[in-house]
Structure formats: structure tokens, C-alpha cells
Fold these 3 entries.
Entry 1:
Amino acid sequence: MKRCNMIRMSMDMCVLLLFAVVSTGLVNGICPSTCLCVDDSSGSNVDCYSRYLGHIPALPNDTYHLNLLLNNITVIDIQFCKEMPQLQYIFIDFNLITDIPVNTFADCEKLYRIDLHNNKIRSIESNTFVNMTNLYYLEWPTIQMDSEEKSASAYVTFSTINMINHVFIAEIGAN
Ligand SMILES: *[C@@H]1O[C@H](CO)[C@@H](O)[C@H](O)[C@H]1NC(C)=O
Ligand SMILES: *[C@@H]1O[C@H](CO)[C@@H](O)[C@H](O)[C@H]1NC(C)=O
Ligand SMILES: *[C@@H]1O[C@H](CO)[C@@H](O)[C@H](O)[C@H]1NC(C)=O
């Protein structure tokens, strides 16, 4: 009888512990199993470099440094800073992204640096990067131009950023 109680108690402990682990994980979101996440005083530093990812995984909401460099991501289907308000750096170059939805960087006031080059971007809306008061470095995607109109819209974006934020824009080679 006593022994039974002991087993019962340790099972309860187990359930409790499991619950604690799961709920801690849920507080900030769980690190994707294919990525490496390091927590420090700024939040989560998430490294998904070259993991053959086909899409952007669910990420901890305290992510401040996000490395998705060299994957097979085709679409941006999240609003980065709505989900991760602390974001300061995004590296998403060398992927297969074709479009950047206009709200992708909404509420990204803390974002410092975006690397977007070497994707398959076709066009960018002119207000995609507005209100990013801390942006200082943007590795500009090469637009895959197939019409005059797209070329014009890329130019508008480029000059708008320059005027508003004095961003240093690096235009890096062809796709
Ligand atoms: C990633 O994309 C490249 C280029 O399209 C392709 O050759 C490769 O097979 C893909 N790898 C995976 C794991 O999806
Ligand atoms: C992350 O989500 C948790 C739970 O919803 C919330 O309490 C916390 O404030 C969020 N953190 C950030 C940085 O948004
Ligand atoms: C940019 O900021 C201004 C001033 O706060 C605001 O009125 C506008 O709606 C913002 N634009 C976007 C696209 O967030």
C-alpha cells in the first residue's frame, strides 16, 4: 500500500514536471527542432542556417536574432515583428522567395538589419519598409525584372528608404 502511494506520488511529480516543461516552452514558443536557439539577456538567438527548410517554422516570440540563411523558403507567410516584437536582425538571404507581402515588416521599429539578397523576388511595394526607424542596413534583393512597371516600383522603394531612414543599402549581385 505504502509502495503504491510512492509510485503514485512519483507519477504525479512526473506529470507536474512535464506540465512545467511544456508550459515554459509555450511561454516564448518552442525552438524549432531543426534549429539552434541560444537564450541570452536580449531574448532568443535563433540559428536555422542551411537546414533545407521549405517554409518559415514557428519560432520563439522573444527572438531578436533570426538566421534563415541558405534554405529553400519560397514564401514569407508571417509578419515577422507581429510574432517576434524584439526582432533586431533577420538573415533570409539565399532562399527561393518570390514575393514580399507589404505587411511583412509591419511594427518592425526595432529591426536593425535585413538581408534579403539572392532570392527570386519579382517586385516590392513601395511602402514595405516604412516606419522602420532603426533600420540601418538592408541587403537589397535583386529584383527579377520583366517589365518597366516593376523596375519603377523598385526604384520608388529604394528612394523612399533612402530619404526616410538614411539606410545603408547594399545591392548585392545577381540571383
Ligand atoms: C533545395 O533547393 C535546391 C535548389 O532548388 C534543390 O536543389 C535542393 O534539392 C533542395 N533541397 C531540399 C532538401 O529541399
Ligand atoms: C510571448 O508570449 C507570452 C505568452 O503569450 C507572453 O507572455 C510574452 O509577453 C510574449 N513575449 C514577447 C516578447 O512578445
Ligand atoms: C507609419 O507611421 C505613421 C505615423 O505613426 C502612421 O500613421 C502610418 O500608418 C504608419 N504606416 C504603416 C504602413 O505602418
Entry 2:
Amino acid sequence: MGKRIANTIESFGYATTVSTRAVEAVQLLRTGRYGLMTCDIEMPDMTGLAVIRLVRAACPLLPVLMITSNSELSTALEALRLGAFDYVVKPFKPSDIREKLERGFAVALADEQRERQVDKLKERIADRDRQIEAGREELRRLNRLFKKGVLDGLGISVNILSRHNEALADHSRRVGDISLRVGVKLGLRGDELLNLHAAGLLHDIGMLALSPDIAVAMCTHGQLDRVEKTAYLRHCELGAQIVEGIERFQCVAAVIAAHHEYVDGTGFPMGLVGDAIPLSARILAAVEDLDTFRSMNRPPDEWRDPVARLQDEAGRRYDPAVVSALLDALADEAAGPREVVEVAVTELIPGMKLASDICSRNGMVLVGEGQLLSADMIERVRGLLDTDLHATPPVRVERAVAA
Ligand SMILES: [Fe+2]
Ligand SMILES: [Fe+2]
């Protein structure tokens, strides 16, 4: 039967190859270039259905025409389901074969065109994915540059503060650092920590708009006359006004404006109560008072034991959760002698304190010694260092000595 079909097909001007063994036929298909295959529903070594499965796996687009008899029609229909494009019932006329061949070639052409379109579509999707990834990488790069700009700007602001009053600048650095640790303990992350740290560093920047004598008094004995006190009460609002001009710092301005509000409503300037005060401002209120009274030459009598005073005021002046986190942070600080250890850049975690500068390969200081690391700083450092972080020299950080 194979030879007869081959002769018929050749009479239409096509070249043929005949094989009576299914395995051999599939091998021929794999190594040669064929436009169509005819297959008897029963081969000597395999059923026609098994042959179709093999051909579909080896040459998915090759059109297969089944040759069948009337008694095998149900098997022929199963062959169509498996991927044959048509069947011819024996005995057949040459014109039947010709019409099927032309349809088979048309099917193959359509399949090939569809396959090319699918390939083009896949390539376009891959192109789009590459563009999206390039866009994301650019956004990450701009974000790193932006955050570096923010941190540089904060450093400049604290330097300006130190020209006004060195003790006030030191107080601002401590409030920034301690607030950051409290924020980490309260589960703040990402931009929340960056904003909290910024608000801590800048919380008293409104003092720049006041007489330098007021800052000196507040950093030493806390005694102000009536006029000075009236002016002092405005430093929150003035600080917020200085910062709110920077669009990125709108929420930082809101925290600065409220950094002397107490949860029981006895703070200033608005007398806000409870959750009406932003969490970061509730943190600053407790840290601000603690540091102010710890560093004064003559703190008020009730603040001679600042930690006990903090506990007393938990739930009154201060948010109890903030006091608890602050006491935790103080306990960490007082946990005895600390040692300096080296850790890989990939092992840095928020709350670690740097024992030496982190520098880029060309020696530029990325983050300075003594800095308490936030998640954003760690991300920025990793971004600014080489992409192969595992090849970067270890970083020196402080940690408590194990008991
Ligand atoms: Fe203040
Ligand atoms: Fe302050």
C-alpha cells in the first residue's frame, strides 16, 4: 500500500520516501526535510495511533494523513484527535489523494505562519519584559541617588545646626539615633525609618529661627524667662515650616510640628491627644525629653532619674508602647561592654552601629563611623558598592559582648 500511495504522490510531481517500519520512518523525519507524511492505520511494528504520538513529539508541525479502511473509521477519528489533519478511506482515487495533499500543505503553511507569529509575539513580550526590567533598574538607581541626596542634605542641616549650637547638634544626633532604634523595635520599616531618623535629626531645627541664647539655655539649665519661653514654644512650628518646603519631607514636617505633643493632651503647640499624634512624633516626644534631661547640667528634680520618670509617665505624657521600646533600646545600650566585630555587607541589619567608615572602592565615605544603620542606609550602601557584595571587604560594627 505504501508503494502505491508513493507512486500516486510522485505522479503529482512530489518526491517521496517509503518506509514500512514506524521507528525507521520517525528517524527519517527527524533527519530529513519532509512536507507531509501519510501513514497506514496499521503498521507492521506499531499501530497508527502510536506512530502519530511519536511523530507529534518529533515533528510537531508535520501534517499527517491517515490511510484507513471503512472498518477502521473509529480509529481514524481517534487519529484526528491525536493530531492527524485528515484521513483517506481505501480504496481511494488519485484525485482524493491530491485534494488531501493540497489541504495538508495548506494546513502546514498556516501552522508555520502561526508558529512564526507566536515566535514574534514571544520576542515582543521578551523585549517588553527587558524594557520593564531596565526601567525598574533605572528607578532603583534613581531611588538610591535620591536617598543618598536626602542623607547628604540631612548631614548638611545638622552641620548648620552645629554652627548655631554644638550641644544642640549633638542632642539632635542622639535623638535621631535613639529614635531610630526605638523605631526598629516598634517594627517600622523602609521610608518610615528614614523619615523618623530625618525628623529626629531635624526636630529642633526651628531653634535656628530663635535667639541662640534660648538654645544655650535649653541645652544647659532649661531656665527661660517669659519672653524666651513664648518664643521657644514656637520652635516646633518654625521647624516644620523650614522643612515643609521640601516636598519629600512633608510627613517629616508633620512629625517635627508635633514632637512636643503628649498623648494626654498636655503637650504643645496643639494639645493633641493619643493617636492624633503621629507615631514618629510620639517617639520623638519621649526621646527628646529623655535626652534633654539626661544631658542638662541641672535637670528638674522630677527628672533626676530620667528612666524612672519615663516609666511614671508611660500612659500619661508618653505612649506606653514607645516607652517600652525606648527602655528596651536603653537596656541594649547599657548591656555592658561592647566589642567590635567584622561582618559581611550582606549580614548588616538595621540597628547595628558602625565602628568604622564604610567606603566605596575609590575611598569615598558612604556611611560614617558611629552611624546607627537603618534598613534604607543598608540598602543604599549595598546599592553603591559593587554588585558582587560577597567580594566586598567586611564591615566593622559594634555589638554587646556575650555574657
Ligand atoms: Fe524640641
Ligand atoms: Fe530637642
Entry 3:
Amino acid sequence: MESQTVFYELKVNGKTYRVDDVEPRMLLADVLRDVLGLTGTHLGCEHGVCGACTVLLDGLPARSCLMFGIQVQGHEITTVEGLAPDTARRFLGRTRSAMRILYIRHTHNHVMVPEAKPRTNSR
Ligand code: FES
């Protein structure tokens, strides 16, 4: 059976990208990393637990391993690459040692969440 592919646009870090010829079931984290080359988003548990894949979706933290890329069309996505250069540079270096990768995975959630908009109670 031949798999179906789709195309759509995503707005990431203020720039509009065309995502072309991908399967609709492709996770947002995989789209960011493998299609757009934004490798600052990492995958750890892939179950929504560790936070390594956290991005900001319309300013609020979201696990990119739990949603499809096609689901977030029309939303503003911010990855670690879209943060202030000084903040991102601290966590993304050229060194890719196993220790550094583990450090990045475990600190990624702590980098992205403080950048999120404060939640308001709308009740
Ligand atoms: S990879 Fe662990 S929460 Fe997404």
C-alpha cells in the first residue's frame, strides 16, 4: 500500500516554512528536526514525560512529541532556536558529547517553559 503525503505551512520562530511531501502522521518534533533542520528540539521519552521536545505553541509550552505537525498549522511555534541568542547559545553548542546531549535533554524543558506566556485563569 502506498502512503499518502501532504504539504502544509508552519510558522516557526517568526518564519513561514513550507512542509512538503510528508506523511500526515509525522510528529511535530520530527518535522522540526528532520524536515526544517531545527535540531534544537530533542526527543527523549516520546511519551510526553521528559519535556525534551518542549516548544512554545502560541506562547504556551507544548510537547512536540504528542502532536502531529499538520495539527499546528496557523499557530505560532517557537523552538529553542527562536529564543534570545544568548539563551539559546548557552544550551546549544557545537560539542555533541553524550554528556552534553543528556544535559541538553534534561534542561530543555527548563529553558522553554520560563519563556512561556503566563497563564491566565479565564473562568
Ligand atoms: S520526548 Fe519526552 S516529552 Fe516529548
